[in-house]
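Table S7 (text form). Paired inputs.
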Amino acid sequence: MSFAFLDGLHQSEVVLYLMILLGGLMTFEGVRQVINGEAGAARSRNRRMRMIARGLDEERIVEALLRNQPRGDKRARGPVGGLRRSLARANLPFGPGAVLAISAALACGIFFIASTWTPAPAAMSLALGLGLGLPYAIIDRIAIARQAKLSQQLPDALDMMARGLRIGHPLNVTLRRVARDMPDPVGSEFGLLEDRIRHGVDLATAFREFAERVDSEDAHYLSVCVGIQHGTGGNLARVLTVLSRVIRDRLNMRKKIRAISSEGRLSGLILTMMPFLIFGTIYSSTPSFFLDVKDHPVFLPVAAIVLGLTALQAVILNRLTNFDF
């Protein structure tokens, strides 16, 4: 092999080119390690495993995952207690104080905007209704979505546990495998479950706490099945397999019912939005149709009655087109 092209280079140029090559190789290696590190973090499938990978101790992990859970047997009651339970079911990283502060700020903003085109009492009512109700509704929807996602993941987690039990693994090993390999929310929840059992909590008690924390039908079914099997004995792997099949069949049936009732739900949505569409069309084309009578003493009561009837219609149509089984 000939290196004649190097003969015309000065020694300092050769050193410079070698340093550039070495710098390029080091840059490539640094980028590769960063990508591998990010991939390793991504392989931590759930929030609990990511906390463990960051080196957090178990006490801080449990505190973060159970931030809004009631301590001991004390359960807060009233609106604040309901808000705390919704935050716990949604597993959000903030407490009721932050929600109340956001609600107050939102109510002030809505009142400032609404007071420019409506009387002060109506603007105050609108601000209080939306400022207090909207954050709670959003949190409740997040909690419902998390429960639905956990119910979808639960059959796979139970199948994984059943396979581990069949080949002879102890229960805590199968729980640890689910906690390591499954994404949130079931991964972190089963990790907490495994921690409780490892610290000496009774099996039935740990699953009952899990069901109370998640507060879904499928979790309560799992808690009851494990409690009965723990008290009477039997093949836990078979119990988990049967329960997994039952939960999966219930989810499939729910999807079929939603598909069949989709036309009714769409009709209900159209009927609910129709008054607002009519109002927007008339107001955009002929604003005087409403502006000429807005100062009449009967206008606001009639408008309030119409809004109340529209809301009642939405509730009735929602009950007629959503089936609970």
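Next pair, protein 2 of 2.
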Amino acid sequence: MKNYKSPLIGLFMSILLLTVSTNVGAYGQNGHRVVGQIAEWHLTPTTKEAVLGLLSGDLLPEVTTWADEMRSSPDKAWRARGKWHYISLETMDEFKPQDYNGEVKDIYTAIRKSIDVLRDPASPSQQKEFYLRFLTHLIGDLHMPLHVGRAEDRGGNTIKVKFFGREMNLHSLWDTHLIENQNLSFTEFATFININDTKKISNMLNSQPKDWVGETFALRGAVYDIEDGDFSYNYVYKHMPTAKQQLLKAGVRLAGVLNAIFDPEAKPGVNSVKLEK
């Protein structure tokens, strides 16, 4: 199996925020690791063994940032994969999940493709590792409201705002700065928001990726309502519950998808998602 732990990975991580286009970094590094840590806690033992067996020695929270880190690669194929991280919609009527035919056009079809590869016993292990790493990232991305954003402003990238006096764009506020404002490590953040309430977990898992697109779309109206665009404590108070909710859902659902793929004993709505055919 190809070793994805390149000696350049440390360099990639240190220069990531300078080199990666901000329209693909939902929740930043810390947020993605929160998703991965929560997911790891909700994996069944069978799934955890299978997942770790595919990751070349990496841990689940570690690989959730891989899809962004690899955009620093000189391989031109990574530029084309930028569209895998988002879907642009003006209205939900534009979203046609029934048209999926195996082609990757956006984040929804990238998730479907990743699941297809991982479920196929004939898929080579190297291919499975590639799509597993991508899937851990994409499910986090899909739960960030501006990754189901508007094409005209590139998911909030062209909307200028201030956060505690610091100039940035709306997308970077949501993908990184709102989370970092909590001053928590990813393990602390994950510990604080993780749940073991079976009813709430069941509600999160009784859904499919196509449903998550609609959920995220429904949240973005409040995110796009920026008023004067000069934010501080009131903004954190208003929007942090949504950010925490979406990180938690992403982590639980990532675990639910992986349990559905790798553990035949996993029960839909209890510890797994009932995947689309």
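The chain has a mean pLDDT of 91.
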